[in-house]
Amino acid sequence: MDRKSSAWVWLLFPLVGAGVAETTDPWTHLESIAGRLVFYQMEGNATRVRNTGELASRVPTKTTFERFDPQKNFSTAKFTYTWDLGDGQVIRGREPVVRYRYSASGNYTLRLKVGANVTTYSPAIADVYSTEVQVLDAIKSIELKGPSDYQVSKNTSLAFHVDGSPPMWVCWRFLTDCVADEAASCTLTALYGNTLRLNHTFTAAGVHCVDISVHNDVSRMQTSFSLYVRNNNTHLIFILSCAAVLLATFSFIAVIACRPRHRHGSQVATCSNAVFLKNQDAEGQSAIVFNFSDVAKGEKEPLLTQHGTQ
Ligand SMILES: *[C@@H]1O[C@H](CO)[C@@H](O)[C@H](O)[C@H]1NC(C)=O
Ligand SMILES: *[C@@H]1O[C@H](CO)[C@@H](O)[C@H](O)[C@H]1NC(C)=O
Ligand SMILES: *[C@@H]1O[C@H](CO)[C@@H](O)[C@H](O)[C@H]1NC(C)=O
Ligand SMILES: *[C@@H]1O[C@H](CO)[C@@H](O)[C@H](O)[C@H]1NC(C)=O
Ligand SMILES: *[C@@H]1O[C@H](CO)[C@@H](O)[C@H](O)[C@H]1NC(C)=O
Ligand SMILES: *[C@@H]1O[C@H](CO)[C@@H](O)[C@H](O)[C@H]1NC(C)=O
């Protein structure tokens, strides 16, 4: 017995009983099960309807099949629902609802096969609903990756790692002394990766704040970082102290080199016109040759030769 004729059997009873002759084919309406898929996601205590085809990953998700049957043609039918989530999960049940979660971001095709047995004798009716879902990772963190040192009047490029699925929309602003100015609006930037680079030149020393608000289609996150910006003077002090250390080192070397030494009873009293030569001998040892030209005696021979391992 084919599907149409058996549908007749079922439909004929009420029609015959009412004594009404139907001229059109009434059973054709029962060939499809009308309805739509609705997605819900639970975030904490809140439940959100997600009907844009975008879902957040790792979030409890509920999908329902809302049947459209105003004339209650299927009121006595028995249904079976087969949910193929597209990521390998297949769930079967008799209720028009499925609970699951996508564990990873990506694009999936969710297929629902709805089967209905209107009567014990009629053949099963089946329909397939298919929808594309884009699963995105919610924004979980915003981390400052560098630099760690900030100076006044220096072009600084700050890098932030934003953990979430792109594309994301970022609105950022810098606040001097962390004072929120009523008029301070944020600058909107689209982020197509996970690294946000902000270029800024700090105009004053002290504590500055950078406010960042990021959202993608499934989540939103706002955070603020405080940065300590120091004056360039500190840099100058550092250079000066380095210079002082270098000066002290060279003075020490000069003092060592010019120190009066006894050599065959005579003294090398002067250290003017000293020439430092560095020789590499055969054993790999380096020899520092202090070559003095004694102006007074007009000597051309080296007066002192010092060997040492470096
Ligand atoms: C339900 O059946 C009636 C006839 O009994 C038909 O006119 C109507 O279109 C059907 N509705 C649906 C949604 O199939
Ligand atoms: C969410 O539920 C927790 C208890 O589970 C409660 O403490 C909190 O106030 C609730 N938050 C909202 C926004 O209702
Ligand atoms: C519908 O009928 C078929 C046999 O025709 C059976 O395999 C299936 O389990 C039935 N489904 C329900 C929901 O009763
Ligand atoms: C998913 O599909 C959207 C368009 O619907 C596309 O922009 C995106 O790149 C796709 N994502 C992946 C991971 O393929
Ligand atoms: C700051 O440096 C970046 C490169 O690091 C450059 O793209 C940007 O134009 C510079 N801005 C200013 C104001 O010099
Ligand atoms: C900062 O500069 C880098 C180049 O160094 C550039 O790629 C980035 O887009 C800039 N950021 C902003 C917000 O202008």
UniProtKB/TrEMBL annotation:
Entry's transmembrane regions: 236-257
One GO cellular component term: plasma membrane
Alphabetized UniProt keyword annotations: Glycoprotein, Membrane, Signal, Transmembrane, Transmembrane helix
Gene3D superfamilies: Immunoglobulins (2.60.40.10)
One Pfam family recorded for the sequence: PKD
Signal peptide feature range: 1-23
InterPro entries per UniProt: Ig-like_fold, PKAT, PKD_dom, PKD_dom_sf
Stretches assigned to the PKD domain: 80-128
Official protein name in the record: Transmembrane protein 130
Gene source species: Gasterosteus aculeatus aculeatus (three-spined stickleback)
